[in-house]
Amino acid sequence: MRIRIIGPPGSGKSYLSRKLSQKTGVSYVDLDDVHWKTKYTRKNTVAYRKEQVRKHIKPRDWIIEGVYMDTWAHPTISQADMVIVLRPPKIVLFYRLISRFCFTALLGKRRFDYAKLLHLLRGAWYFHEDQEKKMPPAKYFIYRYADHALSSFDNNQAYLS
User: Fold this and answer.
1) What is the pLDDT of residues 109-153, one digit of tens each?
2) Which of 5, 27, 90, 127 is at 20 to 30 A from 155, Cα to Cα?
3) Which residues pair with 65 in a beta bridge?
């Protein structure tokens, strides 16, 4: 079982990946850990990202989640048995992002920075806004390479009991 989960920040990719991993015993990879050298500050090189992706898709079973659809991440889609696209409503995204941001600031894991929060919210807004413009090529790519299955949860109704 090879699963790729795609969605904007706050859509539930990490949550769903963890739940699927717990249910199946298959480890999961967050593509943020591949993309960023220093979390959200310095990026890894494209060559490094490609190498890491090759390493992570070698096992027979995997779960990979992330917003990335760049060339270096294409094998995570082309080699997937199932691609899940999470697209919750904007209000849900904003609630989750603001809650997460404030909670981590209160715990002292992150300095509260309004500029970073606004940047994150803007990214989620435009990901959602431009969905119809950006998703057709993405859907084409997904259907072309992982035509086995495409699941889209418009209201994020992916529940695991």
Assistant:
1) 767 677 878 887 887 777 766 555 555 455 555 555 545 545 554
2) 27
3) 5, 30
Q: Give this prediction's pTM.
A: 0.78
For the chain, how far is it from start to end, CA to CA, in angstroms? 19
Average pLDDT, stretch 66-81?
88
Query: Which pair of tokens denotes residue 79?
Result: 């080699």
Q: Could you give the dihedral angle defined by the CA atoms of residues 126, 84, 153 and 24, in that order, rounded to the nearest 10 degrees? A: -130
Residue 87: CB atoms within 10 A of its CB come to: 19
Q: Are 81 and 146 in contact (CB under 8 A)?
A: yes
Lookup: tokens for 93? 């995204």
> Of 94, 80, 89, 73, whose CA–CA distance to 131 is shortest?
89
Domain 2-88+134-153 sits in CATH 3.40.50.300: yes
pLDDT greater than 90 at residue 52 = yes
